[in-house]
């Protein structure tokens, strides 16, 4: 079974639990609710991405991790929604993000973070319809890579599959970390 197929299959329960428990559209039914939602995403993505930045030499791993960071989008959104940079920096951060000490763990974590951009396309459309939020007015995180989202997901998949093809021991570690990452989001959002 390919890496992405294994990740999808073996994390299906965690993914469904998070999606159902998060009830994102209910949380973002009002402008204030949406701001709180973006703050929660910032508070989990920032420490997760910091841990990933320190996990390895990304250039050596063949991945432009800097171009995939989501924290900048969330900061941009929070500023567009009226928060100052100082207020953003003072948001309490999630203290229990999953480990990212090796390439397998990084792949598992990235599977969840990069995969979120796919669902973000539907969310972005809905936010525009219900709250009038666009990428420029606080919806960049959910808009993600916009028209490039599918292509970016494909690039991630090719990169991750290539690594696992040359080192199959990465796959079970990636699967376990993806599960832990979904569980981390579940706990953080009190689902």
Main attributes of the structure:
single chain, 191 residues, mainly alpha
Structure write-up:
This protein has 191 residues and is an all-alpha fold. The protein has one domain (3-188): Up-down Bundle (Heme Oxygenase, Chain A). Helix content is 72%, strand content 0%. The protein contains 11 helices and no strands. The longest helix has 29 residues, at 103-131. The chain is globular and about 45 Å long. The model has no long low-confidence stretch (mean pLDDT 95).
Going by CATH, what is the homologous superfamily?
Heme oxygenase-like
Helical residues, percent? over 70%
Question: What is the CATH third-level topology name?
Answer: Heme Oxygenase, Chain A
How much of the residues is beta strand, in percent?
under 5%
Stretches where pLDDT is under 50 for at least 5 consecutive residues are none
By DSSP (H or I, 4+ residues per run), the number of helices equals 11
Biggest sheet descriptor: none
General form: globular
Please compute the radius of gyration using only Cα atoms.
16 Å
- What is the helix/strand order? HHHHHHHHHHH
Q: What is the number of independent domains? A: 1
DSSP summary, beta strand count: 0
